[in-house]
Amino acid sequence: MIMTAANHMHGAEFVAKFRETSVIKQGETAKSHRKQIAKNENRLAELDKIFRSLYEDKALSKISEEMYEDMSFACEQERSALREKTESLQSELDAFNADS
User: pLDDT of the chain along its 100 residues, tens only?
Assistant: First the structure.
């Protein structure tokens, strides 16, 4: 099929609009990722404090060994999940920045 100048111009406008939309969405996604990374980092700091407090409570015999193990396991599971999610979000941000 032969493209006329009008069709070609329309196609060029479509590509330009698509790129513009893509850049806007990528910027919104990057902003959302940065915000989530900050939240994750804050929660990781909170979990570190909780873990230290648990350890102190165990050392001072304020909680049982079983309670310490259960709570520290749950704390470590959450920390691990947050770290993985943060690394994934950061990788996506790095890819966005490489594309820019």
Answer: 455 544 555 777 877 776 777 777 888 999 999 999 999 999 999 999 999 999 999 999 999 999 999 999 999 999 999 999 999 999 999 988 887 6
DSSP 1: -
What is the C-alpha to C-alpha distance for residues 69 and 4, in angstroms, rounded to an integer? Answer: 73
- How crowded is the C-beta side of 80, counted as CA atoms within 13 Å? 6
How many CB atoms sit inside 10 A of residue 30's CB?
Answer: 17
Q: What is the pTM of this model?
A: 0.73
Per DSSP, 63 falls in state: S
Q: What are the residue boundaries of the structural domains of the chain, listed by start?
A: 39-100
Pick from 84, 82, 100: nearest CA to 30: 100
